[in-house]
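Today's session is about reading a structure prediction critically. Students often jump straight to the picture, but the first step is always the sequence itself: look for stretches that repeat, for charged clusters, for runs of hydrophobic residues. Only then move on to the predicted structure, which in these notes is written as discrete structure tokens rather than atom positions. Here is the chain we will use throughout the hour.
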Amino acid sequence: MKYLFLSTTIFVFSFFLTAQTVSQKLLKAYTAFEKDTQLTHAISSFYVIDAQTGQVVFDKNSKMGLAPASTQKIITSVTAFELLGKDYRYKTELGYVGNLNKNSLQGELFFIGSGDPTLGSWRYESTKDSVLFYKWLEALQKLHINNIDGQIIYNYNDFAAQSIPDGWIWQDIGNYYGASAEILNWKENQYDISLSSGNVIGSNVQILDDEFMLNDLKAADRGSGDNAFVYFPKGTSGTLISGTIPINEKKFTISASDPYATENLTMNFGHFINRHSVTGKELGGLSRSQIAYRWKTKELVHKIYTHYSPSLDSIIYWFNKKSINLYGEALIKTFAYEKQGFGSTDSGVAIVKKFWKEKKLDENELNIVDGSGLSPLNRVTTHVQVEILKYAKTRDWFSYFINSLPEYNCMKMKSGTIRDVKGFCGYHKAKNGKEYIFSFLVNNYNGSASALVQKMYKVLDNLK
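Below is the predicted structure for this chain, in token form.
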């Protein structure tokens, strides 16, 4: 009995000593970090707990709300696993409204979307545009439809008309990472632009495949990378591309967000079935206002084919691995669509906050306005992020979640980057077997992001 008591005492003391040593190391490293000139006008927060016991290992400003950038995706991911389930699949249905008369449809083809962000995506074999087009064509052929006397429409009014979340900035929304979520998304609501630059710095850059785009692009130093930005300029029908790409590029590709992705889906599908002997007057390509004029309730739709998305665990995998903002915005609207029948960002945010409030977290630590973290208006505490990560570790879907997190600095963690914001949050198992959960946010730093990242890694290295 004495031996058991002595062993237990030694174990507890050893644990305390180890934890104390890690805490002291973190304090020393973090104190030096705060004194760095890159943080002269910055605010930072760092919170670490023991993953097994929940004991606080380090805490600095953990209750201070900061812009989290894409580390916010862990909140959306964990909430999605809980509210939707890892096996959840989006459903997109094709049908028709009207009458079949022999081989002719007198009425409209009708897509019933549910906000699937993977529709037409190249990331999955089952969602590629060519695969889907042939599936939908086969459904028409089974009904022997070879003529359509109508248009292609969809349930546009099941999602909020304003698809861009409040707080997104003008510089972001024209670029691929600023693609907004619709009830019917297509090819991740983005498209590529091919550019060609000369051999003189400051010379004009040529746009190879869009003669209607306003062009203010210039050539910059070799190796300067992609510093081109696409804007939707006020008062014009075209888009503007500005910034720089490196010199001597024969075909330099950038990606932009597509505000007409749904119209492109319906128009391209109309052209596709025309080429495969299904005739029609002017299939597809209708604007929202035109669809509103021709609107028929989706309850009248005769459904002929249902496409199911990849499962949620697969969607979350790409959401976190590649930090796809569109997926986060689709998920936040899906929470509202599934619970209330109408998808909007504001309603989705309210559902997220209510869910975590019921889990005894302070909803004021989750001051969010979108699902991806792209908005600089978001304010989240490192404390609430760590608590959510701790909660995730107790769930049966946890293996799918942690598998979705990228690896940086030999640690499983989600990164976040917007202007003057950098963050990391995740899990780490030390060499001695101790496991930690952490969140580390920095706002309003100066200098280069890459230099700051190395300094943040130096602090995090004390968990190894």
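Discussion point for the tutorial: Confidence is low (pLDDT under 50) at residues 1-17.
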